[in-house]
Specification:
By secondary structure, this protein is mainly alpha-helical. It has 2 domains: about 5-95, DNA polymerase, domain 1; about 115-290, Orthogonal Bundle (hpI Integrase, Chain A), CATH 1.10.443. About 60% of the residues lie in helices and about 5% in strands. It is built from 13 helices and 3 strands, in the order αααααααβββαααααα. It has helices at about 5-15, 20-40, 50-65, 65-85, 115-120, 130-145, 150, 180-200, 220-235, 240-255, 260-265, 270-290, 295-300, and strands at about 160, 165-170, 175-180. The protein has a 3-stranded antiparallel beta sheet with strand order 1-2-3, with no helix packed on it. A hairpin with a 4-residue loop joins strand 1 and strand 2 (about 165-170). The protein is globular and about 65 Å long. The chain starts with a helix and ends with a helix. The relative contact order is 0.09.
């Protein structure tokens, strides 16, 4: 079997058996395409992709890619070659002999509760369909901690205003039921009355529509959040995921249980959720340095 054939079968497995999203499958394809091209260039079979070839590939990556990108590509390669080994197409995974670069993971970006409150008001007092839509989106991103991909995938039937819950299709096509705050419910009530104006006779069940009457896409939400961040909090770098991070951090600061936050956000691993404890601790330390008299005295010595 050629490396190209092996990659094609692996991507098909991810899509059909693992039920990975289209974006995940494309990401794996991008990460593995370069090592497959190198093997094809040397006319190697899958069995001939040894550690020496992989180290040559890794050396090329190190010259052109950031450590985080290299680590991601090596992880993708390990997953692929282990899968090939389990299926019997390889005797062993040569990728296990590769060392990944150490990557420092930055703390999740977030905004203060006060800044978030101001950002929620940026759609302004205008009552046009776009403004009420944007307010509903901001309230859901921050109030319910949705991923932007989850938000644009919502249908009208996903929202239950009476119970105050929204049904979300998360990563790995896993469903979860998330509570909505009273502000999000109120904003959605107003938006749903104006939704037909944006739908423009589109029969789609999509909850949110763009200006042209099609389902709203991720890019449009990102642009809107950038604008809201710049106008509301002077944060032109604000992105939808930062609102999700802010939601989790403020819940943690308010005393929420870490396991509950994990379920709320749809994290597969608790270690992902635990990153927010570092954000919260950093906030505590900053508050201490700014407010505690002994902290000030220490700086003056």
């Amino acid at each position: 079997m050629t490396p190209s054939e092996g990659l094609t079968r692996y991507l098909s497995y991810l899509e059909t058996e693992r039920r990975a999203s289209r974006h995940t499958v494309l990401a794996y394809a991008r990460d593995l395409r370069s090592v497959v091209a190198l093997a094809d260039e040397h006319r190697l079979t899958l069995a001939e992709m040894d550690v020496y070839l992989l180290r040559t590939w890794l050396g090329g990556l190190a010259r052109t890619c950031a450590p985080a990108s290299v680590a991601r590509k090596v992880a993708a390669l390990r997953g692929w070659m282990r899968w090939l080994t389990k299926r019997g197409w390889l005797d062993q995974s040569s990728a296990d002999a590769l060392a990944s670069p150490k990557v420092s993971r930055p703390l999740p970006a977030f905004v203060s509760a006060e800044a978030a409150s101001v950002i929620m008001k940026t759609p302004g007092s205008k009552s046009g369909p776009v403004e009420v839509r944007d307010l509903a989106i901001l309230e859901l991103l921050y109030g319910s901690g949705l991923r932007v991909s989850e938000l644009v995938g919502l249908d009208v039937a996903s929202v239950d205003l009476e119970s105050g819950r929204v049904r979300v299709m998360g990563k790995g096509k896993k469903e979860r039921l998330i509570p909505m705050g009273q502000h999000a419910r109120a904003a959605l009530c107003v938006y749903l009355e104006r939704r037909p104006e944006l739908a423009k006779n589109n029969s789609s069940d999509a909850l949110f529509f763009g200006a042209r009457g099609a389902r709203l896409n991720v890019r449009a939400v990102q642009r809107m959040v950038h604008s809201a961040g710049a106008l509301g909090a002077g944060r032109a770098d604000l992105h939808p995921h930062a609102l999700r991070h802010s939601c989790a951090t403020h819940m943690l600061d308010g005393g929420a249980d870490l396991r509950a936050i994990q379920e709320f956000l749809g994290h597969a691993s608790l270690s992902t959720t635990q990153r927010y404890t570092h954000v919260s601790l950093e906030h505590v330390l900053q508050t201490y340095d700014a407010a505690h008299p002994l902290a000030k005295a220490t700086k003056q010595r």
